[in-house]
Amino acid sequence: MPGHKTSHTQLERFRLIDSLLSSGETISFDDILEKLRSILRDPALSESTLRRDFRYMKNELAAPLEYDAKKYGWHYTKTYKLPSSGFTDDEILALHLVKKLIGQHSSEDFIFKSIQTLLEKISPSLNLDEEKKAEPVREGELDFEEADSKALTIYDRIFVPTRPKPVLEKEACEKVLFAIKNNFMLDFYYNSKWEPEERHRRIMPFQLVLDEGSLYLYGARRTEPDNPRLFNLSKMHGVEVITSRSFDLPPNFRFHEETEQGRFGAFQYDDYFDFKIEFYGDARKIVREYVWSDNQILEEDSEHDKSILTFTTSQWLPVQKWLLSFGGEAKPLEPDWFVAEWKEIVRKMAKNAE
């Protein structure tokens, strides 16, 4: 009924429906509804709510629900176990948020699609804050789409915008994962930022690194196990697994050693640098809203309307891109070589603007 508040959760209803039908009986829709009203002590539980529950169990949880026209009731067509029976409502909400975050980049690669499929299987719909009446629907002819559109969940109140998605070579991700699982060597061609032409690589794949929707492979050549590097899967072509050649993981196989305190994503360099950057205008507000490095110090200079951020990190390249994103509202002060590179980039930008 309009404005009706439930004291139970949708997960509880799923469990009760499952327990009723797991007996193997064929039960009418009205009987299921009455049993739920009685057990949950909620006489106002609506038909539209039960229709919505049936729809979700059937379409999202793969419940083998089927209507028997001869017996005028619902039953399971095969043995079935309700997934996620151990989750609380808050955990279910968290799963939905994870699903949204995973889908933020709309990636078509194996990793993200597999995670989304898994989350679809284990994440039941969320508890409704309000129940709304639906038009009567005859037994066995549940209008699931219409019923679902008549009520909103907390899930509808949370939005995650889409982001750019990586362009990956078909099956590249599956091959990389297969090689990682079995410690097989990987063969591929790579177009590096630091080299003018695409080059052949054969490396030991250590880890798959996920960063803002992009996928990276962390690995090293067999002849240089102590010099691992990152490879962007979007730049890898002709990926092949060398199943005849395996390797043992070296002690340094993990990306991002504990000494790295910068929070600028998938980038790691051998040397660490002390950065000092000035911020002005709106950039000052943005800098205050995040922790950019675990060792950062933020100083406010109100007299000159500026903020000064100092921190130590090896991640100089993403720091450079981050700094440039502030336009004229940020200026590096240290280290000297970083300041010189920034000035050169600004000069090129100014020349391109002519």
UniProtKB/TrEMBL annotation:
Keyword Secreted found: no
Signal peptide start-end: none
Top-level taxonomic group: Bacteria
Keyword set includes DNA-binding: yes
One term of GO molecular function: DNA binding
Keyword entries, A-Z: DNA-binding
UniProt-listed InterPro entries: CBASS_pafABC_assoc_protein (IPR051534), WCX_dom (IPR057727), WYL_dom (IPR026881)
Name of the protein in its database record: Putative DNA-binding transcriptional regulator YafY
Originating organism: Treponema ruminis
